[in-house]
Amino acid sequence: MISKNGLKNKKFKVIQLQISNKVQNQQLRENDIMAENTKCACGAANVAIFPCAGASNTGQISNKIAIELVRQEVGNMMCTVGIGARAPGLMKSAESSEKIIAIDGCPVNCARKTLELAGFNVDRHIIISELGVKKTKDMDLKEEEVALALEKVGEILQSE
């Protein structure tokens, strides 16, 4: 038999879950609206997006942002490590790009430096930790930080 307190706790948890679901649905709707509006203002048809995907929350957010930009048809995500390895196919793809966007997680700028060391000019450089997201070693990404970074990246790309 469930006590009154146990029943109240279960009802409270159900209400919490319902509220959480409503918040997540609202965030998804906002992301969908932003996806319709986010395009690179550079006007290039062939945009290469290189995230750092580093070992921090901001590095992983840079990767998540790059994936979302591909979904929004801003450009094509490419392998930054492959550029560092001078993989011939990746080098050729990058060479044929009209614009290159590097998305770094922090001011160490691994993505940008990798591209520059390989001889590429980075047309747009974005640093996630400069967008209001504090760099940590926590790999459990906070959706509000991802949403904040995505919104600001969209604003940056539209402002070109």
Write up what this structure looks like.
With 160 residues, this protein is α/β, with parallel strands linked by helices. It is 54% helix and 11% strand. The chain has a four-stranded parallel sheet with strand order 2-1-3-4, sandwiched between helices. Strand 3 (99-104), helix 5 (110-117) and strand 4 form a beta-alpha-beta unit. It starts with a helix and ends with a helix. The model is unreliable at 33-43 (pLDDT under 50).
Task: List its traits.
single chain; Rossmann fold; 6 helices; alpha/beta; 160 residues; 4-stranded parallel sheet
Overall CATH class: Alpha Beta
Average residue pLDDT: 82
CATH topology assignment: Rossmann fold
Q: Can you count the helices?
A: 6
Q: Give the topology string: H per helix, E per strand.
A: HEHEHHEHEH
Assign the structural class, choosing from mainly alpha, mainly beta, alpha/beta, alpha+beta, or little secondary structure: alpha/beta
- Radius of gyration (CA) equals 19 Å
Task: Detail the topology: elements first, then pairings.
Layout: H1 4-37, E1 47-51, H2 57-71, E2 76-77, H3 80-84, H4 88-95, E3 99-104, H5 110-117, E4 124-127, H6 143-158
Parallel strand pairs: 1-2, 1-3, 3-4
Helix pairs in contact: 2-6
Précis, in short:
The protein has helices at 4-37, 57-71, 80-84, 88-95, 110-117, 143-158; strands at 47-51, 76-77, 99-104, 124-127. By secondary structure, the chain is of the alpha/beta class. The chain has a 4-stranded parallel β-sheet with strand order 2-1-3-4, with helices on both faces.
